[in-house]
Amino acid sequence: MLRSAPPRVRSVAAFSIAIGLCVALAFTGCGPAQKRPGAVVAYAAEKDEIIQAVSRMWAEAEPDIKLNPVPAGTNEVVQRVLAERRRPLGDVLWGVGAEGPSALPDLFQPYETKEAKAIDPRWTAVAKSEPWQPNNVVPMALIYNTKLVPAEKAPRSWRDLAKPEWKGRLAYAAPDKSGSAYTQLATMVAVFGDNEAGWKMIEKIMANAKILQSSGKVPKGVSDGEYAVGVTYENIAGLYVRNGAPMKIVYPSEGTAILPDANALIRGGPHPEEAKRFLDFLQSKPVQKMLAEKLSLRSCRTDVDSPPGLPPVDEIKPAPGWNFNWAVEHRKDFLKKWQATLLSIKQ
Amino acid sequence: MAGHTAEHQAVRRARALGDPWLVALAFSYALLLFLIAYPLALLFLSSVRTEGGGWSLAHFRDFLALRYYRAALEHSLYVGGMVTLLCTLIGVPLAAAVARWGVPGKVLLRALVVLPLVSPPFIGAYSWILLLGRNGWVTNLLERLYVALHPSAAAAIEAGTGVPWIGTIYGPKGIILALTLNLYPFVFLMVSASISSIDASLEEASSNLGATPWRTFRTVTVPLLTPAILGGALLVFLHTVADFGSPMIIGEDYMVLPTLIYSLFINEMGGEPAMAAATSVILLACTTIVLLIERWYIGRRSYVMSGLRRAAERQVPRGLRFLATVFTYGVLGLSLVPAVVVIVTSFFPCTGPIMRPGFSLGNYATVFRSVPRAMFNSAYLSCVSTALCVVLGVVIGYLLVRRKSQWTAGLDALLMVPFAIPGTVLAVALITAFNAPPLLLTGTVTILIVSYVIRRLPYAVRGVVAVLHHIEPATEEASVSLGASPWRTFRRVTLPLMAPGIVSGAVMTWVQVISEISSTILLYYGAWATMSVVIYQQVISDNFGTAAAASSLLLAAVFVPLLLFNVWQGEKAAELL
Hints:
The structure holds 2 protein chains of 2 kinds.
Chain A: H1 5-27, E1 39-44, H2 48-61, E2 66-71, H3 74-83, E3 92-96, H4 99-103, E4 108-109, H5 121-127, E5 133-145, E6 170-173, H6 179-192, H7 196-208, E7 209-212, H8 217-223, E8 229-233, H9 234-242, E9 247-250, E10 258-266, H10 272-283, H11 285-295, E11 298-299, H12 324-329, H13 331-346
Parallel strand pairs in A: 1-2, 1-3, 6-7, 6-8
Antiparallel strand pairs in A: 3-10, 4-10, 5-8, 5-9, 5-10, 5-11
Chain B: H1 6-16, H2 20-51, H3 58-65, H4 67-100, H5 106-112, H6 123-132, H7 137-149, H8 154-158, H9 172-195, H10 200-208, H11 213-242, H12 245-250, H13 257-265, H14 273-299, H15 318-335, H16 337-346, E1 350-351, E2 354-355, H17 362-368, H18 371-402, H19 406-420, H20 423-434, E3 435-436, E4 439-440, H21 446-468, H22 473-481, H23 486-514, H24 520-523, H25 531-540, H26 544-569, H27 571-576
Antiparallel strand pairs in B: 1-2, 3-4
Helix pairs in contact in B: 2-18, 2-19, 2-20, 3-4, 4-9, 4-11, 4-15, 5-26, 6-16, 9-11, 9-21, 9-23, 10-11, 11-14, 11-21, 13-14, 14-19, 16-26, 17-26, 18-21, 18-23, 18-25, 19-21, 21-23, 22-23, 25-26
C-alpha cells in the first residue's frame, strides 16, 4: 500500500480540482448585483401587456434610466421584498394588492408623488397614512357565463349567490391565498353583517362555491364554462369580456368594494431617486390615459375618463360598511371564521 | 456473493486509513449543511422568534387538533400512496417491455418517455381540464353519449353532476391521474438503468430450468430490481407529496400539505411563518419515515451480481411482444396527452385569454421576443446544474452504498430535506441566508444554480445508488489488490459500471431543472429569466396561447437533444438510458 501514497495524494487533488471547476462554473456570470446607475428595478405583479406598454413609454420619457421589470405574482413579489429585507435588491412594487404594503409597513417607504394633487381624493385618503400610492381603481364584481346562464337568471346581488341553483357552479378563490378574494369576503361580511345571521348567509354561499387556489382561475373557469358564476374583480373580468369571452360583469346591488391597487417604494432599495421618478411616471396622465384607453384599466386620476365600455366609477355603488382599513384590521378574524364555516359545511 | 477472505479485509482496513472517501464524506456533509441545513434552520428559527416563545409544541398541537390541517395531511398521504403505487405498476412493466420484450421503435421511444416529466408550469394541468373538466372536450362527448343512452339523465347532466362513475376530474382523482402520468418515467428510468446491469446468466438459468418469461420476470428479474424500483417509487412519492402545481389547478378545494404550506407562508400579507414551519416539519417527518423504510428494506438483502455480461434481447413469444407493444404505446400515448394538447393549442389564434379554433403562428410571434435569451438561460442553467449534480451525485451515491454507516444515513436524510420543503419556501430560506455575509448570492445567477443543485441532487444520487447495488465490491477490491489506487479503481472500474445509473440520474435532473418554476420565480432577476419564467409570466397574464407556444418550445428543447443522443448512441443508448 505504500506505493499507493502518491496516487492517493493525486486522487484527492484531482477530486478537488473537479469540484473546484464545477464551483467556478457555477459562479460564472455572478457579477455585481443590479446596482447599476441609471436603472430602476420594478417587482411587477402586472400583466405582460401592461409591462410591455408602460416600458415602451418609459423608454421614450426617460431614455437614460433603464427599467428592469421582474414580473411575478403578487404573493411572490411581496415575498421577495420580505426575504431580501436585509439588503433590498428591488426598488418598487408595481401593481400589487394594497393590503401587502399596508400589512408590512417596515419594508416600504411612504412617498408622496408629484401627481398627488390630480389623484381622486377617495383613493389618496385611503393611502395617506399608508406606505403605498394608488395605481388603478378596481371594483370587485360578479361574473356569469352567458352560454350557461340566461340573462334573466343571472345573479344581481351577493345574496343571489346563496341560491340553490348555483350549488357546485360558483367559483370563488381562497381568501387566505388571494388578496382580492379576501376583499370579496370582507365585502360580504360588510354587506351581511359580522354576526350569526351574516355568517349563516356566507355559509350558504360557501356551500355553493368551489374554492379555487388562485384568483386568476375564477374568470378563466367561468369563461371556459367550467363554472356558471364567479366572484372576481372588474379589470380581469374586463380583459376576458373585451376579448370576446361568453361572460358578463355584474356589480352587486347591495354595493361592492372599490379600491385602488398599489405601487410602493421599497425601503433601502438600490436606486431611490430613479424609483421615485418611476412612481411619479406610473401616476402621470399619459400613462393612466393609455392604460384606460388601451387596456381598460380604471384610472385613479380625476382627469382621465373611465375605460370605454365600463360604467363611470360613480355609477357603481360602494358597499356600505366596507372600508380598506377596517378590512385589513379584521383579516385574521374573518379568515378564521371563514375556515370554520368551510369545515362546518363539510361535516 | 463471494465470501470475504482475510485478504479482502486487510485491503479494506489499509484503505480506510487516509481514505479519500473520508474527505469526500466530510466535504459532502459540509456542503449540504451549509446549503440546506443552514438556510432552513435560519428560516425556521426566525419564524419561531417572530411569534415570540421558543419551539413550543403549540403549532404541532394546533396542526393535529384542527381538522383543516389534519385533512391536508391525510390527503397528501392518500394521493402520495396512490400515485406511487400506480407509477410502480406502470413503470416496472414498461421498463421490462422496452428492455426485454421486443417493443419496436426504441430510439424514438426512449426520447419520448422522458417528455411527461417536463411539465411546463401550470400548462400541463390545464390541458387535463381542457379535456376532462366540466366543459372539457372529452367530458362533453361522454355526456352526449350518456344522454343518448339514458335520456332520463339529461337534467342531471345539465346540472353539472357529470357522467356517473366518471364524474369530473376535479379533486383527488384528477391529481392522481395527472401526477401518475407525469411521474411514472422516474420508475421507468431507474428500472431501465438497472435492468441493463442485470447479469444475463441469472435469467437464462431460470428459463433453461423451464420457467416462462413471465415467471422469470416475476421471480428473478423483479427481486434483482428491488433497489431501482424502490428508488423510483421513493422519488415519485417525495415528488407527489411535495407537488404544488397539480393540486393547485385540479385539486379545487382538495387541500394538500404543499398548498397549505404555500398559503401559510407565501402570502402577500406576510403569512404565518411559524405555522408554515410546523407544517413543513410534519411533511419532512413523513418523507423521512418513508426514506428510512426504503433504506431498511433494501439493506436487508444483497443484490450484487458477479457477472458483468449484459443481457441481449432474446426472442420473446409473439403474444407477449404484442401485449408489450400495446401496453407501451398505450401508456406513452396517454401520458403525452397534455403535451399534445399544449402543442395543438399553441397554434390556435388567440386574443388575450380567449382561444379560437383555427391555425395561427401568432402565439409564436408574440412569444419570440423573449424566447432566445430565455432558452439560452434555461439551457445554460440546466447544463451547469446537471453537471454539478452528477459529480456530487456520484460521490454521494458511492458513499451511501459503499461506505454505509450512520454518517452516510444522516447524509441521505439531509439530502432529502429539500424534497419536503416547497420550492418557494426553500427559495425564501436561500434568500434569507445568502443575502448577507458570509456569502452574498442574491441577485446573481449562482443562487439559482444552488437552488437547482440542492433540490435536484436526490435524482442523481438515486440513479447512482440503484445501479451501485448491483456491483459487487469484490470487483473493485480485485482492482485495488492488483495495485491500482482507489482513485484509479474508481475511475476505471466503478465509474464505467455505474454509467447507466449516472445517465438516468442526469436525465432526470436535467429535465426537472429545465422546467423548474417555484424557486426560480423568487430567485431570478431580469437578465436570467428562464423559459419556465416566460411561461409562468404568460399564464399569470392570462395569455394561454402564448404560454402554450412557449411550452411547446420548451418541450422541443428537451426532446430534440434526447432524440439526437439516442440516435447517436444507437444500441448503446439502450444500455445507458
